[in-house]
Design brief:
By secondary structure, this protein is α+β, with helices and mostly antiparallel strands. It contains seven helices and 14 strands. A seven-stranded mixed beta sheet has the order 1-2-3-6-4-5-7. The protein has a four-stranded antiparallel beta sheet with strand order 8-9-10-14, covered by helices on one side.
Length: about 280
Amino acid sequence: MSRGRTINIFIPDSNPRSVKICDIQNSIVKAIFIPRNKLEYVTNREELKEPGIYFLFGKEDELIKSKVYIGEAENLLIRLKQHNQKKEFWNTAICFVSEKKNINKAHIKYLESYCCEQTKIINKYNLENGNSPTQSSLTERDQDFVLSFFDDLKILIATLGFPIFEETKKEEKDLFFCKSQNSDASGEYSEDGMVVFEGSKANINTSSTIGQWAVNLRNNLIEQKIFQKEGDYYIFTENYTFNSPSAAAAVTLGRSANGWTSWKDKNGNTLDERFRK
């Protein structure tokens, strides 16, 4: 059984959608959540003048995965101001520093490289970094320190609404299936929505009942090479998370569908029966 953690969230201006300062009890890792329009508000925060790693999040189109840029800086505030002038896509920044001020340039360079590598592997967000950051050379002891820092960073960043490092694991007990004569998909109902797994088959044709939004989403999946034509099907080339079970069912079946009844587990129980009754 995994152990519980206590997370503290301080809201400096009493606005729950504004700046948040977060930490985990008994951890050195502190997160500073900054909406882009609040950048001026944090100019006097001392922790942002320290070394750390930062994430810039944004989404240009509701139909594609969110974007993230990962960087490191010896003075986070100066770097964020530079990105405010030069990078268009982002609307949220999350910075991470050490409460004990014991993280240095070599640590954050290693952490930056490791975070970029994990982002590519898990593939929930499109990584905006043009070049892969160089991983600094650390002793075994320092590597362990940085990876421990990452473990708490991973919890905090997901708590703040960006589960960039949360891997979807395909477990038999959680599997659901959406099948028809021309489709055969498997997936999982997760905290983020309905995940359709890599290798699932979707109907290559669409009926007149399918909404235009679903057509647009299917076209976008083709453009992003997440849908790949193989014979009489479209094949999912990677795991893809839909906002709702019905969106996942409509795109997979090629027609209007109620996802709560279309997705069934191995015993024939629908999502509705498992999660809503």
